[in-house]
């Protein structure tokens, strides 16, 4: 027990007598070393600053007198006085004055009483109002701390924010923040109209110096606008990404407000466009948590302001866009979307946009109409991604359930398209000969968003998309019409790369399925859209990654040499067409199938789906097993065969020395085959189809031969090798004793003469 009271624990006398212990002096007695010298320097510098203000500023004398009168009336210990001090601490750094007061959130008097009722607030722990520059979170009982913890500690974090306005101004020089704000409100704001435009444009330079959520939003807008530069030029992106990261951390430091949510949302879009996917996902998650903490998603709150309501809608929009780009589940469910459209505010809806060169005069922005349409479209996309981005899609759905689900999405999307208000309809953009003097960026955003949802439907396996597209080439034609006519000066939004990439992927799939004799490199419109990705990469770095991806696809040697374990092999080596031919043969031969098992890798599931579609087997449920995967190739994954061979030669190894051990892979596959046989016998199936990979099939055959199965007379042991894509191997199993006969191996007769020797690296 203390010999005397130290301001924290009761003194011996008070504790012994069970009396209240009140201590009003500071926590520690005495003056810290150097404190008086520091105080003298501070007073001297402040006095000089006031003298300069009086002598060099017109009306400075009167201003000082007015401040003195206000100061005399202000109680420095009041909440108002403390807040005023804290909000002005930035002046100390500006004047190069050392702060003599570590924190304005001082401890008050500590009272110790035998009255232990926690419901009674202790005077010493009374909560001091926290300024906007400090993050504030109320602490629940599970934290182990009360609110005095907040009053005594700054935010606990590994990465500390750097709020350096002067450095930021130097980064955007010679541009001014006002110019960059104008860029933001021209290009980005109409697609995501949540920011108080007038409030930001009126934001003073003094306010921008203080670290608050509002100033973090201000600088976020400035640096997004900075990428758009001036007409015909782009801003320097070298230092801006790190700056936006600093602003993002600073946003989390501040008291949470709607402006903080807006700042984080726009930062997540910025990071997405620049190709920093992890930062994008983290900023988005922080934005959504902050928004929900502010109850912005509560539909039952009456009288929500326009800004609050639109900000939550933008949370939904951006969440679905980023989740789609990253192939993840949205963090917001479609049931959390607001149902009502935004009212059409005439000054915002009819704001005029000048066309380049004043061709045909200005046109109305239609910002609100387009925003309402975008929100409805996005809700459909959210419902769709919630299903298709699951790790077990489509395995947890039967073929019939999958078909019904995809058709429901197609119908919902078609209904959205045909009910668009006439002033924002874009049916005319399907015409490849259409020429437009300009397409506003937020209108382009809506059109490309629609094409993206259609594209995901196609990639996910939807077949009846004719209500959404007039032809297989309609998608790429519309995409090309949009990107080459974006106004002003063809500077894209940060998510255009994602939209264009999905359009290219779906168009490639449709093209290969309908143009068997042609290469995708011969598809002129496809190449044109790819070139626009290259053009846009000068602003949004992720576009350069996608550009290189599609350039690699168009190299003909990729089609000739093939990829090891590459998910794009289906598209490029005509695997989809080969699967369709196999399905047609099974249907013509009237093969009855009772059950289907498949590897759960993407391209194998794609093959299974196409075969079943063309064989008329949609009513049968497919079972997708990870055990049927081919052997992982480790560091050889994704390399062309020639590249993999070269790597093996350099390292003095063979294919089998990389990735999953051969013995482990063989054991896994053998157990899978035995399990399928047992399950088929249990279900009394007569004929089952197993869809897997070439190396896997050859190992199946070796396994059953080792277990006593026989070859038919037409098959030799030397014939057993890695079979051609979509080739058929037939094994008869006796239900009584599980003995078997291999009656056919590697039958690719459905492919005609178009058969190429298969590399035997996995034999």
Structural overview:
The protein is mostly helical and 763 residues long. Among the domains are: 165-340, no CATH class; 353-554, no CATH class; 574-634 and 660-751, Phosphoglycerate mutase-like (Rossmann fold, 3-Layer(aba) Sandwich). It is built from 30 helices and ten strands. The strands form four sheets. A three-stranded parallel beta sheet has the order 6-5-7, with helices on both faces. Strands 8-10-9 form a three-stranded mixed beta sheet, covered by helices on one side. α29 (662-682) crosses α30 (694-706).
Summarize the topology:
Layout: H1 12-16, E1 21-23, H2 35-56, H3 60-73, H4 79-87, H5 90-94, E2 110-112, H6 148-152, H7 165-172, H8 177-187, H9 197-201, H10 205-208, H11 213-228, H12 240-253, H13 258-274, H14 277-293, H15 306-326, H16 346-349, E3 352-353, E4 363-364, H17 367-388, H18 399-418, H19 441-459, H20 474-483, H21 496-514, H22 524-536, H23 542-553, H24 556-561, H25 569-572, H26 575-588, E5 595-599, H27 602-615, E6 622-625, H28 641-651, H29 662-682, E7 688-691, H30 694-706, E8 710-711, E9 728-733, E10 740-747
Parallel strand pairs: 5-6, 5-7, 8-10
Antiparallel strand pairs: 1-2, 3-4, 9-10
Helix pairs in contact: 2-3, 8-11, 11-12, 11-13, 12-13, 13-14, 13-15, 14-15, 15-17, 17-18, 17-19, 18-19, 19-20, 19-21, 20-22, 21-22, 22-23, 26-27, 29-30
**Record field, number of beta strands:** 10
Shape: elongated
Gyration radius, rounded:
34 Å
Q: Between the first and last Cα atoms, what is the distance in angstroms?
A: 80 Å
The number of helical elements comes to 30
Question: In what order do the strands lie side by side in the largest sheet?
Answer: 6-5-7
Mean pLDDT: 78
The amount of beta strand, in percent, is 5-15%
Q: Major beta sheet, specifics?
A: 3 strands, parallel
User: Which residue ranges are poorly predicted, with pLDDT under 50 across at least 5 consecutive positions?
Assistant: 22-29, 102-128, 151-155, 355-361, 556-573, 759-763
Structure class: mainly alpha
Helix share, percent: 40-55%
